[in-house]
Every structure is written in structure tokens, then in C-alpha cells.
Amino acid sequence: MHGGLPDLVRMRAERWRRLADALREEGLDGLVLVGPSNQEYAGVARPVAEAMRMHYEPVVVLVPAGGEPPHVFTATAEGVPPEVPAERVHAPLAIEFPEGVAALARAVQECLPGARRVGIDELTGPLLVGLPAALGSVELCDGAPALGRARLRKTRDEVECIRRAQWINEMAMQDVERALRPGVRQNELSGLFLRRAFELGASASIIDPVWNLTPRSIAAGTRTANGDVGFPLASDDRFLRESDLVLSDTGLTWNGYHSDFGKTWICSVDPRPDPELRACYERWREVLAAVLAQIRPGASCGDLVRAAAGVEKKHALAHFYLGHGLGCDSSESPYIGSDLGQAFDDSVPLVAGMVFVLEPVVWRDGVGGYRSEEIVHVTDDGYEMLTTYGWSPFA
User: Fold this and answer.
1) Among the listed ranges 179-183, 204-208, 283-287, 349-353, which one has the minimum average pLDDT value?
2) Superfamily of chain region 156-385
3) What's the CA gap between 266 and 393, in Å, rounded?
4) In this structure, are residues 376 and 292 in contact, taking their beta carbons and an 8 Å threshold?
5) pLDDT digits (tens, 9 = 90+) for 41-76
6) DSSP 3-state of 21
7) Per-domain residue ranges for the chain?
8) What backbone torsions phi and psi does residue 235 show, to the nearest 5 degrees?
9) Which listed residue, of 97, 144, 165, 218, carries a Cα 20 to 30 Å from 159's Cα?
10) pLDDT number for residue 56
11) Is the peptide bond before 70 cis (omega within 30 degrees of 0)?
12) 49: exposed, middle or buried (C-beta count within 10 Å: 0-12, 13-18, 19+)?
């Protein structure tokens, strides 16, 4: 693994400064954060034990506009970094109830004194109904533009967190690929993957591991709403058989940052792609090379889409896109080649510090296809690859 260990204290301080800059540019005096990934960006990790408590949000974070540590309302200080003073850690707010909404309004007025415009990232039903009135003269605004502006460009420490998360993911997937032989079950592969990942220090698995048994034709596969290749489909205890085409997809976090791994494999005692399937892979490599050649600050996401389409017109599944950002979420801005269209892609410039996943697909009905996910970091003069796994058994 290249790169060094990130300085987490420096990383949190730089993110607070970026949030302060974004708030100033958006004319906001603070943020109310309810969503876990936005809280993670603000330095507050949602305890793993809270992962299934989806019926309400047990943590609320208030971010001041001056770049100082946030105020955290939580039942446990487990995920609060040591730089947050004890007096800024408060009892939890039950924001699914009117009493909690009123308490949050008071907290905004006390913790963000003098605030006139405050952004919020998510609204529960009671917050939507009651918070604007409870805040009185404080205007409640959409916090997404400020958060998106801050999170779009990764610091050097954020990049190293992603690199470490991806390294753990790839090391664990080596165990899986070695075990991918006829007679293994999908859930056995999941067990191998998760065991090795957590031995290596993963914080959490953020998607159920996918070992998609992919038919060689759309008609022979699972029916989908868009009539395209069924992916991803849930894994279970079925046996894999000789020559099964397997599209894998896994994601882990390390210190709040996500990895993304996707490859096309063949289940076999001697996995060798036939010539037609290898041709799909070779065309996929052409698509990837054309896109990578366009990546540099100042280019646009539209340039990447045109480069892919110039090699393979249908370079994505109908329910996917050419690429998506990666950070505190497994899929975040920028979205490249999505249903938002070419005009939107042309409006999004590439800037140094962006990290995104390229995941083109080349499909030939009756043959199958090839898909792989490659993580790219935009640098000052081009790009670097954060995915290092390679493309076995095709190369």
C-alpha cells in the first residue's frame, strides 16, 4: 500500500475550516446535521452499535460558522473526537417528537448565538413541521450546497483514509478470489471476505457483499424494471458452478471513509475467459483508457462521458452511471454520466482533490460482459489510481 497513515487530528481541523469556508460562501451561520455521513465529515462518528436504530436519529451535530469544533448531542461520547471540549457534548435530542424539536430550536439559539440563517441536511417529519416556527427569526435553509462544496475536494488525509480502506478491501478480496471454485456458496464467500476485512482493521461493511451470478443473456436473467442486466442481486446460500460469471461488489469503511471494489470473475478450477468474453474485457480497457486520458483539473465530467461513448456507446447499465464520487458516502458527488444528462455533466468541472469511482460496463447479449470499478484521485496535474487490484483472470 502506497501513501502514509493519515493525521486524523489534522484532517478534522481541515474539514472544520472547509465547512467554515463553505458556510461563508453560502451565507449561512451554522449547520444542523442529522445524516450520519455528514456528521462523520464534521468529525463525529456514529457508533457502530447504532447502525440498526433507523427508526429515529439518536445523534445531532451543530456546526458553528467559525471553524471551531461542533456541538454534539448524543447518548454516548464514543464517536466524539477528543478535540471537542466536554462542554460541547450534550444530552441527546429526541427529534422524532415535538419536545425534541423545541429542544433543538433552543440549542440552535444557545450554541449558535446571533445566527440568522442556518442550514440543515435532513428533516424528520416533526422537524419539517415544527422546526421553522420554533426557530423564530432564524431562517432554516438547505444545507446541501455548503456540505457538497466542502466535501467535493478531499484533503491529503482524506485520500489516505480512502486508500487504506481500499487496501483492506482488496486484501480481503484476494482470499475470496482464491476460494472462487465450483461448489463454494455465496455466503461462504461473504464470510471469508468479512473475516479477513475485520482482521485487517475495517471499521464496518457498508453493503452486503455482492457475488452476482450473471447470465450470459438478458432474457435468461432476472426480470428487471428497465429490461437490462440484473445487478446487483442479493447473495444467498446457493452453490456456484463451473463457468459461472460472477460480478462482485463490496464496500468497507476505515475511519469513516469508504472503499469500493467491483470485478468480473469466472468461477472455475481453471478460470479462462473465452475469446468473446475476453473481447468484452478488452473493449472495457479501451473505454477506461479513453476516460483516464481526459482526467485533469479543468476538464469536465462531460468530457469523461464523451470519451467513454466514443469507444462504447452503451458503456453503463441502464440503472447505473459511468462514475460516482467516494468519501464519507460510498456514492456521492460528482455523479458522472447519470440520468441528469450531458448538460449537467458539462457543468461539473474536475478539480484537484476529487475522488471518484469509474465503473463502465461492456455487455454483449449472449456472451455476457465485463465490469470493474476503479477509484481515481484527481491531482494537480492529472490523476492517480487508488485501486491497485488488477483484472484477473482476464489479465
Assistant:
1) 204-208
2) Creatinase/methionine aminopeptidase superfamily (3.90.230.10)
3) 8
4) yes
5) 999 998 665 554 555 557 999 999 999 999 999 988
6) helix
7) 8-151, 156-385
8) -85, 155
9) 144
10) 56
11) no
12) exposed
Cell triple for 359: 465503473
DSSP conformation letters of 316-381? S-TT--SEEE-SSSSSEEEEES-TT-HHHHHT-B--TT-EEEE--EEEETTTEEEE--EEEEE-SS
CATH superfamily to which 8-151 belongs: Creatinase/prolidase N-terminal domain (3.40.350.10)
Task: Name 119's bridge partners.
Answer: 31, 141
The gap between the terminal CA atoms of the chain, to the nearest Å, is 21
Cβ contacts of residue 268 below 8 Å, gap of 6+?
Answer: 181, 182, 242, 243
Report the alpha-carbon angle 269-193-3, nearest 5.
110
Residue 239: φ, ψ to 5°: -80, 145
Q: Can you give the pTM of this predicted structure?
A: 0.95
CB atoms within 10 A of CB 213: 18
Backbone angles phi, psi at 149, to 5 degrees: -65, -45
Q: Which of 160-174, 219-233, 295-309, 370-384 has the lowest mean pLDDT?
A: 219-233
Beta bridge partners of residue 378, listed in sequence order: 383
What's the confidence (pLDDT) of residue 46? Answer: 80
Rounded mean pLDDT, 297-315: 97
